[in-house]
């Protein structure tokens, strides 16, 4: 059935979940009572705990925190009162720039007491500031400076946004400038940041593998998230894969006793039935006893089918996979031990499993019709034992010491075991495949990260050593073609497993150093370098399709990446910066190996890294109730990604040049009513090998203009939000000819609605995705991933989600 456009009795309101470093979501009211349990410790640790409990962002010059201690804070206080008491033993005072943004400054000796306030004040200018982060990322050691465009999401922000989104890819696709719109499938393929790859880290562990399978954002349950920080723009200081930016996900830990039970129910509003309903249950237990803390989380979810605006079931995505008709299990445990006020050790394990079990397949008959003339159609009767899945197991050991040999130290050791499986592909018509088969990837990764930070007066030196040792293979399960043909493509009977990509070892060792200098009159300089040594090796193997015998081999190569930035405060309210950063990522070695000829020689292959030169100029304006951030950027590379066309028969590396603009604005009309706008526009060109002219890059790399407009209104314990999401249309064809990622796309606008109600011991969230029940095709579906109508998948119709969290 088709339903009328929906309306929710919500006042217009803004999802200020983000962005500018000073204005964030209204996670706690300044005058709302908060339960604190913060022991006396280093001021850096005390402030980190304050931000964790309140969600309020703090800004402070990092040098001001050295040797400072916080007073103990226990009991119920407002955020403003709590911060004042916390700073009581320090020489700092708080200036409130908004209900969610606070600048900490040094007290003048003659009037220390009079300058400290427990009420919001907007009379003083901003100083040179840096964000006090609450995780073990490189950003905590000061590698994030004013010369970066950043987006920040607290746990509350994520909970609110997930009320009207199915996954993290959809959230950041709407709420982060420069990120492409999400696909509504089980992939972040085509979800680029500034036209390049986004490196996803969970508690410092990279989710990428050398054989890029584009499922980095589908490896944990969102309820585990404590915060997300996204640094936009390439920066090799974080390691391989950060050519477009870094997304750092921090999971929850225990700093006070708490027990939470979660329940979630969502369904399509165009097809209200058990087939369209998703259920989820979760339980968290956390406690702290003296120096020992622990947190345990368990979640289980059953995801129903997806239905479009007309109430019709949406067909499966035949290339990258789906989320519907699936089951998810999540288990997370973290133990912390605080040796003294400066040193703490964390050990954690995380397991996430998502597996599909659907009886629907995609109907191939739509491929006989002109492209875009018909939607992909589902058909019932699928018999397939192993379907789309992802299994992610992580072990993590992290040690932090704020006074190790008079330096700050962060050290991490991690292990990851990852397997993911895709839908079968009929590759019999292609010589490079010659099989009816289903690929899956298995990767084991062992790694470490270390960083020292040495502050000396106005100078800070950060240096460290990283290592990442990965073993990845991609087999293929071959199925009986006769059974498949006789069942009209619905039944799969396994024959055997074969090699598609051989087991490949990729070993990285990297050393980095960063220097920071800040003045008292508004000038800051930041520069550094990273040296990377990489060795890739594989054993003898036989290619799948043509049966070529390929000799094993190895190749080593080195690279040095540089970064430098200068930022300056033009006025008390306006800051500007200019930055140069080199991004870096390994080429997709699997694309070369799986289609290799018998005379393939890795030593003379195209396996050089992708190094991009990124220039950026930006500004930040901050007044009493307005925050504006803007950036112009340009990125070039002489050798882009390894590209495949004709299923591996044509492999090349193109020159690339990308430029764009990002703008985000937050405006507080009153303490309760705020507005937010985000806009980004990116242009990208490539020059194929041997070509004389540049041409536009395809739509999977360069998204069209994207904008988000939102309002938020909060009164008492109720938070109401409305959000418009706009994606512009664009013609990606070359001389009117279509191709992979090269189609003319249409614009679309959607409306999401949110409401959050805080009760004594519980929180209720309700959200409606696509509240007007708009009929449209996401950008990914318009670009046709399989270059056929089976990828022309309509968007979901209106969806409603109800979440209840009870704190015992």
Give the helix/strand layout.
Layout: E1 34-38, E2 41-42, H1 43-54, E3 57-60, E4 69-70, E5 73-77, H2 79-86, E6 92-98, E7 101-106, H3 112-115, E8 130-131, E9 149-154, H4 155-162, H5 168-175, E10 198-202, E11 205-206, E12 225-232, E13 245-251, E14 258-268, E15 277-289, E16 292-303, E17 326-338, E18 343-356, E19 360-362, E20 378-380, E21 389-404, E22 407-421, E23 425-426, E24 436-456, E25 459-479, H6 481-486, E26 494-518, E27 523-538, E28 541-542, E29 549-550, E30 553-569, E31 574-585, H7 589-593, E32 610-622, E33 626-637, E34 642-645, E35 650-653, E36 655-668, E37 673-687, E38 695-696, E39 706-715, E40 718-727, E41 730-731, E42 744-745, E43 748-758, E44 762-769, H8 779-783, E45 799-807
Parallel strand pairs: 3-7, 10-13
Antiparallel strand pairs: 1-5, 2-4, 3-8, 6-7, 9-12, 10-11, 12-13, 14-15, 14-45, 15-16, 16-17, 17-18, 18-21, 19-20, 21-22, 22-24, 23-24, 24-25, 25-26, 26-27, 27-30, 28-29, 30-31, 31-32, 32-33, 33-36, 34-35, 36-37, 37-38, 37-39, 39-40, 40-43, 41-42, 43-44, 44-45
Description:
Keywords: Cell outer membrane, Membrane, Receptor, Signal, TonB box, Transmembrane, Transmembrane beta strand, Transport. Its main location: membrane. Residues 390-770 form the TonB-dependent receptor-like beta-barrel domain. This is TonB-dependent receptor. It is a multi-pass membrane protein. With 808 residues, the protein is mainly beta. It has a domain at 23-125: Phage tail protein beta-alpha-beta fold, CATH 3.55.50.30. It has 8 helices and 45 strands. The strands form 9 sheets. It has a 22-stranded antiparallel β-barrel. β17 (326-338) and β18 (343-356) form a beta hairpin. α1 (43-54) runs antiparallel to α2 (79-86). The radius of gyration is 26 Å and the shape is globular.
């Amino acid at each position: 059935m088709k339903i009328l456009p929906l309306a929710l009795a919500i006042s217009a309101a803004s999802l200020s979940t983000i962005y500018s470093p000073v204005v964030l979501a209204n996670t706690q009211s300044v005058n709302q009572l908060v339960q604190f349990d913060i022991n006396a410790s280093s001021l850096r640790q005390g402030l980190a705990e304050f931000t964790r409990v309140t969600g309020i962002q703090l800004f402070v010059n990092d040098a001001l925190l050295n040797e400072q201690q916080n007073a103990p804070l226990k009991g119920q206080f407002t955020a403003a009162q709590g911060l004042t008491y916390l700073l009581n033993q320090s020489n700092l005072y708080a200036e409130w720039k908004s209900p969610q943004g606070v600048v900490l400054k040094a007290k003048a000796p003659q009037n220390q007491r009079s300058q400290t306030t427990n009420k919001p004040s907007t009379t003083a200018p901003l100083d040179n500031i840096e964000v006090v982060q609450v995780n073990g990322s490189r950003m905590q050691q000061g590698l994030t400076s004013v010369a970066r465009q950043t987006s920040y999401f607290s746990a509350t922000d994520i909970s609110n946004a997930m009320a009207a989104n199915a996954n993290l890819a959809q959230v950041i696709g709407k709420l982060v400038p420069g990120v492409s719109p999400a696909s509504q499938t089980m992939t972040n393929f085509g979800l680029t940041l500034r036209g390049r790859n986004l490196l996803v880290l969970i508690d410092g562990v990279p989710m990428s593998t050398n054989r890029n399978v584009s499922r980095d954002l589908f490896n944990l349950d969102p309820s585990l998230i404590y915060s997300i920080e996204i640094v936009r723009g390439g920066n090799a200081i974080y390691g391989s894969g950060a050519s477009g930016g870094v997304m750092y996900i921090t999971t929850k830990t225990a700093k006070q006793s708490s027990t939470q039970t979660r329940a979630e129910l969502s369904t399509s509003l165009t097809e209200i039935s058990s087939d369209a309903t998703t259920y989820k249950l979760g339980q968290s237990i956390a406690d702290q006893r003296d120096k020992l803390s622990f947190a345990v989380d368990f979640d289980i979810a059953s995801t129903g089918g997806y239905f479009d605006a007309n109430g019709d079931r949406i067909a499966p995505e035949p290339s990258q996979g789906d989320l519907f008709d699936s089951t998810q299990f999540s288990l997370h445990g973290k133990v912390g031990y605080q040796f003294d006020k400066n040193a703490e050790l964390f050990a954690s394990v995380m397991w996430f499993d998502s597996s599909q079990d659907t009886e629907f397949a995609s109907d191939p008959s739509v491929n006989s019709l002109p492209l875009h003339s018909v939607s992909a159609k589902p058909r019932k009767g699928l018999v397939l034992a192993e379907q789309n899945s992802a299994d992610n197991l992580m072990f993590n050991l992290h040690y932090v010491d704020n006074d190790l040999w008079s330096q700050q130290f962060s050290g991490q050791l991690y292990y990851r075991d990852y397997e993911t499986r895709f839908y079968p592909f009929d590759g019999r018509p292609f010589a490079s495949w010659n099989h009816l088969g289903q690929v899956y990837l298995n990767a084991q990764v062992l790694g470490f990260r270390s960083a020292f930070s040495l502050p000396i007066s106005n100078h800070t030196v950060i240096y460290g050593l990283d290592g990442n040792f990965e073993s990845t293979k991609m087999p293929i399960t071959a199925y009986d073609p006769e059974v498949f043909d006789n069942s009209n493509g619905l039944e799969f009977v396994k024959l055997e497993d074969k090699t598609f990509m051989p087991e490949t070892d990729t070993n990285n060792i990297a050393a980095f150093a960063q220097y920071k200098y800040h003045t008292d009159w508004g000038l800051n300089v930041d520069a550094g370098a990273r040296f990377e040594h990489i060795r890739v090796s594989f054993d003898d193997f036989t290619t799948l399709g043509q049966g070529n015998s390929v000799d094993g081999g190895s190749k080593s190569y080195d690279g040095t990446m540089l970064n430098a930035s200068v930022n300056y405060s033009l006025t008390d309210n306006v800051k500007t910066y200019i930055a140069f950063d080199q991004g870096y990522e390994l080429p997709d070695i699997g694309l070369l190996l799986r289609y290799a000829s018998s005379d393939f020689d890795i030593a003379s292959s195209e396996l050089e890294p992708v190094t991009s030169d990124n220039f950026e100029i930006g500004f930040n304006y901050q007044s009493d109730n307005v925050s504006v951030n803007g950036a112009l950027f340009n990125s070039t590379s002489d050798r882009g990604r390894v590209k495949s066309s004709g299923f591996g028969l044509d492999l090349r590396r193109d020159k690339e040049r990308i430029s764009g603009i990002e703008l985000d604005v937050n405006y507080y009309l009153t303490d309760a009513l705020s507005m937010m706008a985000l806009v980004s526009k990116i242009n990208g060109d490539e020059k194929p090998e041997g070509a004389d002219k540049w041409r536009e890059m395809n739509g999977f790399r360069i998204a069209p203009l994207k904008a988000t407009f939102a309002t938020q209104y909060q009164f008492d314990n109720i938070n109401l939000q409305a959000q418009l999401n706009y994606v512009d249309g664009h013609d990606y064809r070359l001389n009117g000819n279509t191709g992979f990622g090269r189609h003319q796309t249409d614009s679309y606008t959607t409306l999401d609605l949110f409401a959050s109600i805080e009760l004594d011991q519980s929180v209720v969230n309700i959200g409606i995705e696509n509240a007007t029940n708009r009929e449209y095709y996401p950008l990914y579906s318009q670009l046709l991933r399989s270059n056929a109508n089976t990828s022309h998948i309509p968007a979901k119709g209106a969806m409603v989600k109800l979440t209840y969290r009870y704190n015992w």
